[in-house]
């Protein structure tokens, strides 16, 4: 099974900062990679699929890139409402493994 | 509006069984793969199982294979998860989730509110 890793595990940044989260697959998964946001006490929300396609209704400050084994989620200008844990997920084949998550808060 | 409403969670002893249900509405149920994803207290998301909408193929995490069975009733727009031989480590909120596609290899674009399963003596 392909394991997913994320870095960092947590980060603290100021409002307006550019934030980058990395997700890595141990084997190539093409662009079968999604990013989810889970705010404290809330259900997960799809942000990006196909590694770089923004889900409808998601603010344009979120973007994704990558292919193969290395992927990034970027928040171009961090907002207070972006405080959340972010998960990547591979879906090229079962198991549809999630990464361990990256917790983002405001400095 | 897509709605996913889980039910069936509760307290069960180790070795016991539970059947979770998820009533879906607001979309053509048969056309989409459906999944169960769980989250243990203060832990991350864990994919549990997916059933495709196209041919009903099923897929399981190794941690539940042989103990859990996913199924769907397309006539009633309902997803199920039969959980047998439950263990303490199965304690989690179980989310019903809708895929973006009929095939299992797709991202999840809607989630239910979750139902809590607690396995304890």
Description of the structure:
By secondary structure, chain A is mainly beta. Helices cover 0% and strands 49% of the residues of chain A. A 6-stranded mixed β-sheet of chain A has the order 2-10-9-4-5-6, with no helix packed on it. A 4-stranded antiparallel β-sheet of chain A has the order 1-3-8-7, with no helix packed on it. Chain A starts with a strand and ends with a strand. The mean pLDDT of chain A is 97. Chain B has 121 residues and is an all-beta fold. Helix content of chain B is 0%, strand content 50%. Chain B is built from no helices and 11 strands. In chain B, strands 2, 4, 5, 6, 9, 10 and 11 form a 7-stranded mixed β-sheet that branches. Chain B has a 4-stranded antiparallel β-sheet with strand order 1-3-8-7, with no helix packed on it. The chains are: A mainly beta (107), B mainly beta (121). Chains A and B meet through strand 4, strand 5 and strand 9 of A and strand 5 and strand 10 of B.
Tags for this entry?
heterodimer, A: 107 residues, mainly beta, six-stranded mixed sheet, four-stranded antiparallel sheet, 10 strands, 0% helix, globular, B: 121 residues, seven-stranded mixed sheet
Present the secondary structure layout.
The complex is a heterodimer of chains A (107) and B (121).
Chain A: E1 4-7, E2 10-13, E3 19-25, E4 33-38, E5 45-49, E6 53-54, E7 62-67, E8 70-75, E9 84-90, E10 102-106
Parallel strand pairs in A: 2-10
Antiparallel strand pairs in A: 1-3, 3-8, 4-5, 4-9, 5-6, 7-8, 9-10
Chain B: E1 3-7, E2 10-12, E3 18-25, E4 34-39, E5 45-51, E6 58-60, E7 68-73, E8 78-83, E9 92-99, E10 108-111, E11 115-119
Parallel strand pairs in B: 2-11
Antiparallel strand pairs in B: 1-3, 3-8, 4-5, 4-9, 5-6, 7-8, 9-10, 9-11
């Amino acid at each position: 099974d392909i394991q997913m890793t994320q870095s960092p595990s947590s980060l603290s940044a100021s409002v307006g900062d550019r934030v980058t989260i990395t997700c890595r697959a141990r084997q190539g998964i093409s662009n079968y990679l999604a990013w989810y946001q889970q705010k404290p006490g809330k259900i997960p929300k799809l942000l990006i699929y196909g590694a770089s396609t923004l889900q409808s209704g998601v603010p344009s400050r979120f973007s994704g890139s990558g292919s193969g084994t290395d992927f990034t989620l970027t928040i171009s200008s961090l907002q207070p409402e972006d405080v959340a844990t972010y998960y990547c997920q591979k879906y090229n084949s079962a198991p549809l493994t999630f990464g361990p998550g990256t917790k983002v808060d405001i400095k | 509006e897509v709605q996913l409403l889980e039910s069936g969670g509760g307290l069960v002893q180790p070795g016991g069984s539970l059947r979770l249900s998820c009533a879906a509405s607001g979309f053509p149920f048969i056309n989409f793969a459906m999944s169960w994803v769980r989250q243990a207290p203060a832990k991350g998301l864990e994919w549990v199982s997916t059933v495709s909408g196209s041919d009903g193929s099923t897929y399981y995490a190794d941690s539940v294979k042989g103990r859990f069975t996913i199924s769907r009733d397309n006539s009633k727009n309902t997803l199920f998860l039969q959980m047998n031989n439950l263990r303490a480590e199965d304690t989690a909120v179980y989310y019903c989730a809708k895929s973006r596609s009929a095939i299992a290899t797709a991202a999840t674009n809607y989630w239910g509110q979750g139902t809590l399963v607690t396995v304890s003596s």
